[in-house]
Amino acid sequence: MRIVESTGRDDVATVYIADLGDGRLVEFVESVQPPVPREKKWVLIVSVLLGCPVGCPICDAGEGYRGRLTEEDLFAQIDFLIRKRYPTGAVPAEKFKIQFARMGEPAFNPSVLDVIETLPTRYDAPGFLPSVSTIAPRGCDAFFERLRELKERAFQGGRFQLQFSIHTTDPGVRERMIPTAKWRFEEIAAYGERFFAPGDRKIVLNFALADGVPIEAGPLSDHFDPKRFLVKVTPLNPTYRASASGLTSFIDPLDPAKEYDALRAIEEAGFEVIVSIGEVEENHIGSNCGQYVSRHLLATTSGQARARNGYSYWESSSPPPTT
User: Fold this and answer.
1) Residue 265: CB partners within 8 Å, gap ≥ 6?
2) pLDDT tens by residue, 181-195
3) How far apart are the C-alpha atoms of 83 and 89, rounded to whole Å?
4) What digits encode the pLDDT tens for the residues 266-308?
5) Parallel, antiparallel, or unpaired for β 41-46 and 25-31?
6) How far is the C-alpha of 64 from the C-alpha of 118, rounded, in Å?
7) N- to C-terminal Cα distance for the chain?
8) What are the φ and ψ backbone dihedral angles of 279, each rounded to 5 degrees?
């Protein structure tokens, strides 16, 4: 694997673009959460596919799908990030979260589960917290069943994070936001009932919420148990696809204190609601959305216009490191 570009800040987040060979480019990220030190919390975000076949109108990863990454490809990303910081493979972070969410839908790639199962024997990382973020695509029942069994066997007691990205409570709008066959809300809820055990982290219902897209308490209460599910709302990232689709963020990342009536109604229905904005600098770096940096490089080198209100920070590594 050869690192061809990087962008970011060491004290916030760094995005790496790597060539896995034959021009297969992936993005992956390491980040911290100031003022929390890296020894307390360190987050890696790795790609699981080469692009993504879904083509969501908010994500730049949906252009040019080229298939699954192998277990070796997944570990190449993780190995680079760990060995860069901790050459012995001993990761001291109390919370060492790896999100299988940078680029591609993890349920389309069984190697994700192979990596999660094998990783604790590969590194000395007692704080390892796997995080799987999924749109719940239909036809992946074997993946989800093995995921549930793996969590029960090896990651009980709050040591696993599962997130369903649903983006709206309106089924018709959800079809446009996630244009592929997927589980209905009642199917997600039924799986959650089987997945969740006492002591687990609540299952996250994630909304990367666009302005004007419905989010209502009623459909959530009709299907999901607040004892097992929580609601997380994030800003819509300023990607090229979102810009081309005319979508802007419902959440204002520059005003973390702002209150939203729709979210208050969900809290009143008994749900824990998290508005997850993170560091504003991550919006400048482009570390929080799959394949934005690669898409930005393509636009820059081809003379295309930048995404409207897109990320503004860019710094290349020189010379690029290799592994």
Assistant:
1) 216, 217
2) 999 999 999 999 999
3) 6
4) 999 999 999 988 665 565 555 555 554 555 455 555 555 544 4
5) antiparallel
6) 30
7) 6
8) -75, 130
Report the greatest alpha carbon distance in the chain.
Answer: 54
Cα angle value 147/189/195 (rounded, 5°):
30
CA–CA separation, 40 and 145 (whole Å): 32
Indicate the helix (H) or strand (E) that contains 165.
strand 161-165
What are the DSSP calls for 112-176, one per residue?
A: HHHHHHHHHHHSB-TTEEEEEEE--BTT-HHHHHHHHHHHHHH-TTT--EEEEE---S-HHHHHH
All domains in the chain, ordered by first residue: 2-302 (3.20.20.70)
Q: Give the bridge partners for 124, in sequence order.
A: 90
Place of tokens 């994500």: 59
Question: What's the rounded Cα separation, in Å, for the pair 296 and 287?
Answer: 12
Encoded amino acid at 11, one letter: D
Rounded to whole angstroms, the Cα distance separating 151 from 148 reads 5
* Residues whose CB falls within 8 Å of the CB of residue 278, separated by 6 or more in sequence, listed in order: 33, 234, 288
Q: What size, in residues, is the chain? A: 323
Evaluate whether 249 touches 288 at the Cβ level (below 8 Å): no
Secondary structure (3-state) at 287: coil
**Residue 70: its pLDDT value, please?**
97
Alpha-carbon distance of 15 to 288, in angstroms, equals: 9
CB-based contact 149:158 (threshold 8 Å): no
Residues whose CB falls within 8 Å of the CB of residue 261, separated by 6 or more in sequence, listed in order = none
* Residues sharing a CB contact under 8 Å with residue 101, sequence separation 6 or more, in sequence order: 45, 48, 131, 132, 133, 163, 290
Q: Nearest CA to 92 among 130, 32, 40?
A: 40
